[in-house]
Amino acid sequence: MASEGILLGMGNPLLDISAVVDDEFLQKYNIKLNDAILAEEHHLPMYDELASKHNVDYIAGGATQNSIRVAQWMLQIPGATSYMGCIGKDKFGGEMKKNVKEAGVNAHYYEDETAPTGTCAVCVVGGERSLIANLSAANCYKSDHLKRPENWKLVEKAQYIYIAGFFLTVSPESILLVAEHAAANYKVFLMNLSAPFICEFFRDAQDKVFPYVDYIFGNETEARTFSRVRGWETDNVEEIALKISALPKASGTHKRITVITQGSDPVVVAEDGKVRLFPVILLPKEKLVDTNGAGDAFVGGFLSQLVKEKSINDCIRAGCYAANAIIQRSGCTYPEKPDFK
User: Fold this and answer.
1) pTM for this prediction
2) Does 144 participate in catalysis according to the annotation?
3) Predicted confidence (pLDDT) per residue in 283-310, tens digit
4) Coiled-coil annotation: which residues (predicted)?
5) Which of 51, 165, 219, 242 shows the greatest Cβ crowding within 10 Å of its Cβ?
């Protein structure tokens, strides 16, 4: 049975500012649908424009935090999950703490005195989304916070540790500390490719951590970018998944399992030199509200069964269930109770 603190996430906590926009808005800020990028100078006015001219939802977000919240929702066991990341000492930080506490996650935030809480503009057009993250305080996480006894205790308690690739841009040192701890203590360490730009521009940091990764998640675009950056000369997602699972590992305790989602196409799972395909739950177009958080929710659902030591089949089923529930709502939100069987 999953116990208190069994699952730990570390990442960039962002307050999602989610709104339905139009194509003109996308063009104005030069953003593409189904993309995730870091905000540049010309994007910065967007946050105020969204808040003042659109009907916005504020939701505790950031990829890892989303997955941990969804896993907590699926598990329905108080305090089964914990989370670390950096927020500012401000109104948005207070909003985040309240939101995450209500979700039942045991969050130990590092609170930065100088930078505002990070935000993510979630621009939705026709159910598809574009994410523009302004990391601010999330960028200030320090491994000193991780090393504090009360925080390192969360690491020691956890049997499963999940970190999205986005955290490679902030604190690769913290990731390596927990990855090495997981390998030395026979724990399960999981990561996500997270975005094409991570695979392209943070390859060195990604390569250092990869030997410790027991489960790697991603979508088809990220997998193809990962392949291209490594000169693999294949666009075939199944081949790429196999190649990723065969990359060298630092510890032989666990094999590597690669899980690649492909929107409404089957989920690709590669392990032991074999590929399996799992169909997703198809949703009629009129029920689709917002794809934001679908990938994070899939991982959260998957983790909720993995920590109970269920089969890969059950983990994928739970992932598909959670993703399906979340795309029928605005932002990464969910009904009060899951009805996953």
Assistant:
1) 0.92
2) no
3) 888 888 767 788 999 999 999 999 999 9
4) none
5) 165
